[in-house]
Write a sequence for this structure.
């Protein structure tokens, strides 16, 4: 096998860079370097969903346009339609809690209180939002608020209740989730300064027992 030689005077490309195909015209002086033009599809869809959630928490569904969602997500309106089909389909996805509930409840029952409290706090601190918390904005959306409430009941509180043993499982699930919503509202909406100045794990240690007491009551406690 013969070695491929580089013409004299031609700089050797740095590792990891590509060599233009023969006959490819050189870029004009001062032109920006060519880069990848395709954007990761999943990242794009997540950016669109995040933008839609942003507006859903701030104004009525009827006043939200695909153009506004697209601009906030940094994409074009046709790309929103490509991924979601229509505004109605996009907001049907945004009004679902199914994926969010799966992450919220992803822990053994004996440690679920700690997991849920940590999940809410990390969502607020790392992403500036907790998707489950958007239920508090249901009154903004008229009849669609009823859809949001129905999804929340079926996908969050009833899903949690199905995992609990003992009496009053539905009530205990609602009390546990209510405690989480209160935590999220105080941190993310009221922006409690003392909470924001406290380490996440310390908040978990202080608050998780309140939530866990509804999930796995101590023996002999009446629930």
């Amino acid at each position: 096998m013969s070695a491929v030689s580089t013409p004299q005077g031609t700089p050797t490309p740095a590792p990891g860079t590509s060599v233009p195909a023969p006959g490819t015209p050189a870029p004009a002086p001062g032109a920006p370097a060519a880069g990848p033009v395709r954007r990761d599809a999943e990242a794009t869809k997540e950016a669109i969903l995040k933008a839609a959630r942003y507006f859903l928490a701030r104004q009525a569904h009827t006043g939200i346009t695909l153009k506004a969602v697209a601009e906030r997500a940094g994409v074009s309106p046709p790309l929103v339609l490509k991924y979601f089909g229509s505004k109605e389909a996009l907001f049907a996805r945004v009004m679902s809690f199914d994926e969010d509930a799966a992450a919220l409840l992803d822990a053994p029952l004996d440690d679920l209180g700690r997991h849920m409290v940590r999940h809410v706090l990390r969502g607020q601190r790392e992403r500036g939002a907790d998707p489950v918390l958007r239920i508090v904005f249901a009154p903004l959306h008229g009849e669609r608020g009823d859809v949001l409430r129905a999804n929340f009941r079926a996908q969050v509180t009833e899903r949690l209740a199905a995992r609990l043993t003992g009496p009053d499982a539905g009530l205990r699930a609602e009390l546990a989730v209510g405690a989480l919503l209160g935590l999220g509202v105080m941190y993310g909406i009221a922006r409690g300064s003392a909470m924001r100045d406290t380490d996440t794990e310390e908040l978990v240690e202080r608050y998780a027992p309140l939530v866990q007491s509804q999930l796995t009551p101590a023996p002999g406690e009446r629930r």
Residues 1-38 have pLDDT under 50 and may be disordered. The longest helix spans residues 169-189. The two ends are 80 Å apart (CA to CA).
